[in-house]
Amino acid sequence: MPQVSLTVNGRRETVEVEGRTLLVELLRERLGLTGTHVGCDTSQCGACVVDVDGSSVKSCTMLAVQADGAAVTTIEGLAAADGTLHPMQEMFREHHALQCGFCTPGMVMSAIDLVARHPEGLSEAEIRHGLEGNLCRCTGYHNIVKAIAAAWQLMHGKAAAIAAE
Amino acid sequence: MNAPFEGIGASVRRKEDLRFLSGSGHYVDDINRPRQLHAVFRRSDRPHARIIAIDTAAAKAAPGVVAVYTAADLLNAAGAPIGGLPCGWQIHNKDGSPMAEPKHPVLAEGKVRHVGDPIAVVIAETRNQARDGAELIAIELKDLPAVATVADAIAPGAGSVHDDVTGNVCYDWHLGDADAVAAAFARAERVVTLELVNNRLIPNAMEPRAALGEYDPTTGDYTLYTTSQNPHVIRLLMGAFVLGLPEHRLRVVAPDVGGGFGSKIYHYAEEAIVTWAAGKLRRPVKWTADRTESFMSDAHGRDHRSTARLAIDKDGTFLALKVKTLCNMGAYLSTFAPCVPTYLYATLLAGVYRTPAIYAEVKAMFTNTVPVDAYRGAGRPEASFLLERLVDAVCHDTGLDRIAVRRRNFIPRSAFPYQTPVALQYDSGDYDATLNVCLKVADWAGFEARRRAAAAAGKLRGIGVSTYLEACGIAPSKVVGSLGARAGLYEVANVRIHPTGSVSVFTGAHSHGQGHETTFAQLVADQLGVPLAQIDIVHGDTAKIPFGMGTYGSRSLAVGGSAMVKAMDKVIAKGRKIAAHLLEASVADIEFKDGKFSVAGTDRGKTLAEVALAAYVPHNYPIEEIEPGLDETAFYDPANFTFPGGCHICEVEVDAETGEAKVVNFTAVDDVGRVINPMIVEGQVQGGIAQGIGQALLENAAYDRNGQLLSASFMDYTMPRAEDLPDLTVATENTLCTHNPLGSKGCGEVGAIGSPPAVINALVDALKEYGVRHLDMPATPEKIISVIHANRPRAAAE
Predict the structure, then answer these.
(1) Domain of A140?
(2) Which of A73, A117, B101, B149 has a 20 to 30 Å separation from B94 between CA atoms?
(3) How many domains does chain A have?
């Protein structure tokens, strides 16, 4: 069986997997990181989004062996060591951007990537467009959009204000 | 500094969020047990066929496969054979005879009746091995004529879904006074008729269903972890009717559940099989649906075809309503399916109006499709869509104003309690108030300017309103029993004050996104004066909770919360006796406020924690009069349904080039009774509206003529995405429920009930230049563009 070595949430892992093993299966079933969810089988719902080498990736659509040598961050790796939440997590809580919580990990991971890619600013329409790959059945997205706009302020707002001065 | 207010009315941030946001949620598929096996089902890819032969030899010999079971194994099981899946509601026909109730086998027996019908299960060491094994089962089927729609099922000569059900009719039921309606029609100025389809939907909670069964041979105990909205109901149905297991040997755990919307109420075959197989194989057995399986095995929703006729006098006063509905049950009766198009639908046909005579006929049909059952709103969205489209059709045909006709026919606030002609008695409401606030917030008066601005930009803009009502807080046990329910519908709460004063509340309601751990904790904090952080809400485990009927029908606060209030009242009553003893005062003089028992008119008192400690360490205690401990349970059976309602206003813009309709403004003003957490209520309503807009414009469970499911993935079934929805304006304008201790009515379904007609009414308004009177849902670009092409604008034609 192929062997995969990768870094997950800052930890080196080396695992033997069947060739057909998906990255999400490696994370959930071999590493016990069950925060990443599987909501579909056609790469539509985005519940499984993780960060691979700085890009958001649907981990149900990537073979584990393709992640060999990669650095992967999952929802479990977002908060600081002392438990301080990432601004995106904090704003999701503040704006009630989650209900059942199932789409939430993928939604948060996608949102972080979306905000990171747009330091120049994010309109409501751009946020909605940017969430095209993530389905939520509970919230109607209203509060998710608000949370991401607020997280943009926390992640870029201050820097943008300083740069403008 | 005062502690932040966290009682009734505060938008407290949710207690459950930290675990969901950090990846620490605990969903069924996250649970793994030592020596666990994996189950994969082989399902029918045909809508209707006789099973000629099933050869499992190759599957059984495949690597890692431990067992393969078919119906034959279940029927010949050692001990008792495995029963069919039970139906929890019996409807009677017009002639008083019971509905047809064919067996719903756990695995297909003799025939397959819908795409997705499970035929065999393969259990293996890994999920992939089970998948590989399932593909190796050779199944010989002989196709039979299939029926997918109610129209096909009722046609003469249609194939029979069940050999023992004549004409595919499950029941032929009616409600109301046919004679009174006929008399009113005879003297009416006008009768307005509308044919409507309420499109079939697939609930699609984001978490696919999953089940993990476990057996302990040393005790004979079974445990089932399952994605359920009502674990006690599953324990009862599966134990008593399917597996023949007594309740005390069966524990059902529904941990974090990733959305339900009705689809996780029902007892499904997979739960029974993993539990049974775990006992037989003496190893845990786990099954998790993939999304395609969800599409073809989760109960679907809606699927009505109706003719509605409203008799009016010349000023638009409603005289009588006559409704004929054909509804689709699918291939088998799901747990609560029969009550949805009857007692949750026809009883709502008065809506918010004083229509004096109503008669409804409902015929339920079996078809070769996935079973249909309650989906968010369940029957009530079908009723509100029919009524609110019909009211707009009245205005279309007569030229009367849409708001004026509604106002003219409203049940006035002074008329409550109001007895409708279709069995329900409404306790409270103020339909003028919700309408007036909604008109103002949505700026109805300023719409024509927005229409002109849109027209200048090349868009057709329309506005639509719906004023609706629903019945929830389900339900008085005696009443539903007389209507055919095979269960009581009370709720249970156990309030346990621990010796140091912290509180655990065990509730039979179940949270799968609703935020109960926060809302219920606020309720307890408010009543007992205990800080939120010291209150834990426990749900979803039959081993911990005395009993419960679960969460659906917007019942958790109105029924479950009322049970909590009742249990807390018992705690306080006992606490007063203990405090009286400790304070050497008379019980009558003890007051309880803000977490403290005090002697009236003095500053002498004992905190709840001090009283609790005395109850658990009863050294100085009235032991002859009362037992130690401070732990009370209450069952609350509601006196009536609750009746949330309100007004939704929608604005759409249509691109006449592409036929694409987009909701650009949406305003909802709902009456949900007393609100505990406004933030959570708004979230519930927003989510419901999203599903309602989805129904109106996007979603459709599509079958081809032969019963093949065409929309079996997220690539084919159009789920609302962020870009499909606008910013939503949501507010409440509440009257209190008069018959439960909280005054709460429920908020989980209002969004999905009020919104679809508002969207279609707006769309019909946008297309009025094209002579459009009605559009069926979902109003896809294809439907809209064909209407636009078929009807040149009147203005252009003139």
Answers:
(1) 87-164
(2) B149
(3) 2
